[in-house]
Amino acid sequence: MPAQNTPTSFGLVTRTFHWLTALLILTAIPLGLIANGIEPSPETIARKAQLFSLHKTLGIAAFLLGLSRILWALGQHRPVPLHPHRRVELTLAELVHWLLYLSLVMVPLTGWVHHAAVDGFAPILWPLGQGLPFVPKSEAVAGLAAGAHWVFSKLLIASVALHIAGALKHHLFDRDATLARMAFGTAAPEAPLPQGKRLAPLLLALGLYGAGTALALSMAPGPQPASAAPLTAATGGNWQVQSGTLDFTVAQMGAPVTGNFAGWSAEISYDETVTDGIAGKVVVTVDLASLALGSVTDQAKGPEFFDIAAHPAATFTADLKAGPQGLVAEGTLDLHGASVPVTLPFTLEIAGDSATMTGTASLDRRDFGIGAGYGDEETVGFAVEVKVALAATRL
Ligand code: HEM
Ligand code: HEM
């Protein structure tokens, strides 16, 4: 049994590649459709994530195998068609083959780019990391890649359906060796005439992919309206915040995921000459609608977690205390209808009238009744690390 193709038959390597990729693709498609169709709720979210993890993991295997298959095919004869005189059928079959080759690359690649551009949810199980070089964490990139993955996966599904229908037609109605050539390496009964290179099916396939790309571009979400209140200047106090970040990290499916609030303001009074005792006061107000948490932003804002419709803002009111152990902001965090004491140690550097501050605090989401339906840590961890950094100038 030859490893290489001959002018009348597919060799063992081509056939092994074909059936392995077929198996992976035919598993990845239903996994993607089923996982995407599951409405997220505390009962279903773990299952949705597991199916997506499997989908992505098998999809990447299909991608790497597909690339190897294409490299192999480049150095091979293509066995000549069995019915070279059936021009329309031949064009359609070759168009579908080109679409399948293009999809083998473009479908998993767009899925992978989408995954790499957002934070969190349903990790890839290969030890390849969750990001991709040259792919920034960006909602715009993620939206475009998700649209392309959706469109291209539909092109793939249509091509696979036509491809399988064609193979069955040859086997059941024409009763020829088309399927047996790919299944068992059977050689065509007689060598048909050699064919010249035919460009039209390739150009048609590229045209269809071009139209798919245009459709994905037109579906891409435009620039998001700034729902977040911009960082506002202090109305009281003696320091004005110029810039800053408010991030938090929580485990999702056991993997740390970082989100942030873009809209918050801080009113700070601080006297650096006090070295022991209360040196100032801070009131931080956070616009919870400004939350960004990768692919689960909307779910996090919804009733199961922050429930921003009922609790649009959070407030941290604290004394700034200096002492031998360093500086802490000690006060109360009002969030999601709960008032919980919070201590946030921070470091401060003052140069003339400019100050930079960084601080971290560890919270427990259960203290605030956030994600109460998620009673264990399998889906969302209990501990939430909050990190704040800001630069301020003296008023
Ligand atoms: C049950 C599913 C499938 C069956 C029965 C099947 C059957 C076949 C057959 C009989 C051929 C040979 C066609 C010929 O001689 O002209 C073929 C070729 C091909 N199949 Fe499939 N196939 C299946 C799934 C897939 C899938 C999922 C892919 C997706 C990537 C795929 C990609 C290809 C490609 C690219 C060729 C052309 C090979 C070449 O000439 O370079 N097939 N398939
Ligand atoms: C050959 C490989 C792949 C195939 C055939 C495939 C196919 C699909 C299909 C059919 C869907 C459902 C779309 C719908 O609901 O209509 C889907 C969704 C999805 N796939 Fe894939 N996929 C593949 C590889 C990948 C890879 C490698 C990744 C990531 C690493 C990925 C990530 C996703 C994601 C995140 C979604 C959900 C999209 C959304 O929420 O908008 N896929 N895929």
Automatic annotation (TrEMBL):
Q: Where are the transmembrane segments?
A: 17-38, 58-75, 95-113
Molecular function via GO: electron transfer activity; heme binding; metal ion binding
A Pfam family matched in the record: Ni_hydr_CYTB
Cited InterPro entries: Cyt_b561_bac/Ni-Hgenase (IPR011577), Cytochrome_b561_oxidase (IPR052168), Di-haem_cyt_TM (IPR016174), Lipid/polyisoprenoid-bd_YceI (IPR007372), TTHA0802/YceI-like_sf (IPR036761)
Q: Write the signal peptide boundaries.
A: none
The alphabetical list of record keywords is:
Cell membrane, Electron transport, Heme, Iron, Membrane, Metal-binding, Transmembrane, Transmembrane helix, Transport
Q: What is its main location?
A: membrane
Which residue intervals define the domain Lipid/polyisoprenoid-binding YceI-like in the entry?
A: 238-393
A single Gene Ontology biological process assigned to it is: respiratory electron transport chain
Give the cofactors, semicolon-separated. heme b
Q: How does it sit in the membrane?
A: Multi-pass membrane protein
Query: Which PANTHER family does UniProt cross-reference here?
Result: CYTOCHROME B561, CYTOCHROME B561 BACTERIAL_NI-HYDROGENASE DOMAIN-CONTAINING PROTEIN
Regarding protein family, the annotation reads: Belongs to the cytochrome b561 family.
Query: Would you tell me the protein name for this molecule?
Result: Cytochrome
